[in-house]
Amino acid sequence: MTDSNPKESTRALLSEIVDYAGLFPPSALSMSEAVVNYATYKNSNYDWMLGRFVVPLRRLPEFVDSGHDFLSRDNESPWRLSVLASQDISETIRQIEDFNAENAPNAVCDAIETKADASWLIENIADAVPPNFAVYFEIPPGEDLADLVSTLAINKQRAKIRTGGVTADAFPNTAQIIRFMRTCLAANVPFKATAGLHHPLRCFKPLTYELNAPETVMNGFLNVFLAAGFLRLGYKPSLIAELFENEWAESFLFDDNGVLWRQEHFISTAQLRHMREKNIISFGSCSFEEPIADLQEIGIL
Predict the structure, then answer these.
(1) What are the DSSP E strand ranges found in the chain?
(2) Backbone phi, psi, residue 29, to 5°
(3) Which of 124, 163, 165, 227 makes the best surface tag, with the fewest CB within 10 Å?
(4) CA pair distance 16, 50, nearest whole angstrom
């Protein structure tokens, strides 16, 4: 990885944007490989783009075994973990608190990811989780979306949208993603995305790293995050849909003051910072190097 001296707007938009999910498909690395990668990224010139290490609850002991030497040497920069909960939320909390007691300050689980398709389930989990954890609820983008997001807002919880996978049918369409973001923004519910966002701009790419893997249209993380910013500024969904379909880096001008799209639509660096802090928090990716390489190729890094 080469040196990084980004524009202020680039840093505001991309700071801590990637939650590293190297354990998950399509990379599906071993724990030791994923831990070595994360340690490497934390000591690279692009550490400022790196978010949490995503790990399933059942693999926490394996993480400790693989990460012990790295954690002991990296105590000035704690490893932050986002843990995928088991179906038993009380047991999840117990194991996470035990982990934190044994490994803090070198490693701390401070975020939890779970799934919920009903308001009562959100309420039960929210009641069980101590307030010092950020909990992201992956919710379906169907007809109950507004009720689910409303329940998240009332209980001061966060949302998560699955933006892809290893099959074409795992990718929601543009209208579904826009509706999800508009609903979360209207309810002041912070959210994250996961899967299918390896590339900065909308593109047609293979679904996996296997030879002759099937291909599909993938959303770009720049498209998604900037769309959230412009939605927050009150732009109409029809224009946001055009932003989602933008495949050309030349349409975006980054400078220290902000980002200009199509030479007429502007979002300031201050607005980007606020959006990242309060609205769209991060995205999960099994690759950290691929997003950086693509950003370098299009001249944003």
Answers:
(1) 18-20, 50-56, 79-84, 107-115, 134-138, 158-162, 191-194, 203-206, 215-218, 252-255, 258-261, 265-268, 280-285
(2) -75, 160
(3) 124
(4) 5
Give the bridge partners for 160, in sequence order: 138, 192
CB-side exposure of 205: number of CA atoms within 13 Å? 22
Structural domains in the chain, CATH included, are 8-297 (3.20.20)
Which pTM was predicted? 0.95
Distance between CA 164 and CA 198 in Å, rounded?
A: 10
- Please name which of 215, 288, 299 lies closest in space to residue 249, comparing C-alpha atoms: 299
Determine the Cα–Cα distance for residues 257 and 245; give it in Å rounded to an integer: 25
**Band of the pLDDT at 4, cuts 50, 70, 90?**
low
Contact 193, 159 (CB under 8 A): no
Q: Which residue has the tokens 């900065």?
A: 200
Return the SS3 of 184.
helix
CB atoms within 10 A of CB 235: 16
DSSP one-letter code for 78: P
pLDDT of residue 149: 98
